[in-house]
Amino acid sequence: MNEFIIITFESTNFAIQAETTLKSLGLSVQIIPTPREITLSCGISILSAKENLNKVDELVAENKIRIKEVYLYKKEEVKTLERLRP
Fold first, then answer.
1. Beta strand pairing status for 69-75 and 2-8?
2. Cα–Cα distance between 50 and 40 in angstroms, integer?
3. What residues does each domain of the chain span?
């Protein structure tokens, strides 16, 4: 099973800042269009490995990145989304 996290943002600027911060720490991240099932607030999100969730939580707690929500994305025969963080 392929499990990822999708991180959403209030603005494109926050998404780009988070991408820069995460990449500077050596985390593999990819900018993707925000899935319509999730939100309409920002057109781009970040896709990353589920294993990076704890690091994302740390960066949010340290005010190094500003996120809106985090979703668990399971890529199987049927793709599913589950909100993990408000």
1. antiparallel
2. 23
3. 2-85
